[in-house]
Every structure is written in C-alpha cells, then in structure tokens.
Amino acid sequence: MIIFKGGVVPGPYPALFLKKHRALVITDLHIGYESSLKDKGIHIPQNSYPHMRSVIDHLLKITGSRTLIMLGDVKHEFGKPSAQEWVEVKDLLYFLLDCGIEVHVVRGNHDNYIIAILNKMNIPLYDPFMVLDDVLLTHGHKEIEVPGGVRVVLMGHEHPAVSSRDLSGSRYKFKCFLVGRLNKQRLVVLPSMSPLSLGVGINETPTQDLLSPLLRSVDVDMLTPVVVEEQVGVFRFPQVGLMRSIIKIK
Description:
The chain is of the alpha/beta class and 250 residues long. The protein has helices spanning 33-39, 48-63, 83-98, 114-120, 213-216, 240-246; strands spanning 2-4, 7-8, 16-18, 23-26, 67-70, 102-106, 125-126, 129-132, 135-138, 152-155, 160-165, 171-182, 185-189, 200-201, 224-229, 233-236. It has a single domain, classed as 4-Layer Sandwich (Purple Acid Phosphatase, chain A, domain 2). 23% of the residues lie in helices and 28% in strands. Strands 8, 9, 10, 11, 12, 13, 14, 15 and 16 form a 9-stranded mixed sheet that branches. Strands 1-2-3-4-5-6-7 form a 7-stranded mixed sheet, covered by helices on one side. Strand 12 and strand 13 form a beta hairpin. The protein is globular.
C-alpha cells in the first residue's frame, strides 16, 4: 500500500519501503524485552528476536532494499545492556552487514550504550534525526525543528495501534501506521517492530497522554490509521476522530 509518493508498506508488516533510496525503515525493536520482564518476575519464551530477524530478512529480500534504517529503540533497557541485548543486537547487525546491507540508526530514548557497538561496526548513529533528500527520519521522543525542504517526516516511539472489542467483550489491538500532517509536512508514524509490543490504542488515548511531543502538537483526530496484521493484510481505517466517536473502549 502506498503511504506517500515514494513510501510503500511492503505487505502486512510494521515497516516502510522508500523506493527511491531502496531503503527499508523500521522502528522500536526493543531487543531484550524478555530479559527485562524476567527481572520483574515475568517469564516468557525468549523468541521475539528470531521472529524479528526473520521478518527483516524477508522484507529486505522482497523489496530489494540495500539499506536498513532503524528509527530508534533498537534495544530495550534504558541503562547498561543486558546479556540478551548484547548478544542479539550484535547478531542482528553482523547479519545485516554480512548480507551487504548499509545500516543507519537514529537514536531513541532506549538506546543508551548502543554507540559502543555501532562504533565498532562503523555504523552511523543520528541524533535527533537524519535526512534523506526531502524525508526526515527521527525517533519521535524529542521536539525538533524541521529543516526547510523536508516534505515527509517519519517517526516511531509511539507504538501506535487501533483498539477494539468484539460482541463478547474481548479486547483487541492491531498495530497501525498513522498518516497525516505535521505543519506543512506529511507525517507518518511507524508501528513497533517488536511482537511483544502491541502498542498504544490511538483511538482510546487522549492526545495529551501520548508519548511523543510531535504527536501532541498535531490534530490527532485527523490522522488516518493504516493497520498491518501479519498473515491477514493491510487495511486503511477511518480517521482517528471518527473512530473515537464510534468505537468506545471501556
């Protein structure tokens, strides 16, 4: 599905393909999340990273991408990386480099200490954003001044999703892109790559409670969710304002 001119969702996955640059954009992998949960007494199988690596490999192949851009929160822990993070972050980066993929990382609020790994592999780290021609790429946790000539702003951080209930009362969340305007620019918020993070229900969360200062500065009701559900498809939903009025989540 085309999100903007030159920007395509390559199937039912939380990723965006920039055709002109042959670049795949992903965000919020939160590698090591299982280890963080274990420290809190929550034990789940340590299998999110193998799934993400498999999806990334698949997307790179089907799009013919030569570049991968990660919009922050590659790892989960705010402080010193856990053993799981060290192993899995390095495994992913070595895998990408061995495949001949050019890797760029935009720093997120969880990416403390990652610079040592990136420096060792000569992978550039951008803070608070990088620019590709007329496309600005940022994590989204900081306020920024958008340079002149930028047509599109891509960001992560918010982990957007759509919330709903069925007739039995069961509650569901579906990861989604958010597409709208940030002043004069097209704004695209990417969903989290992590299968353990379903995200923030954009239709049930007041604007003032959103994480990103960039999102809090726009008219969220005018944003259009594009839901991506693996093995199901890609679906463009009504604008958030309409969804808030017809889908009441309690």
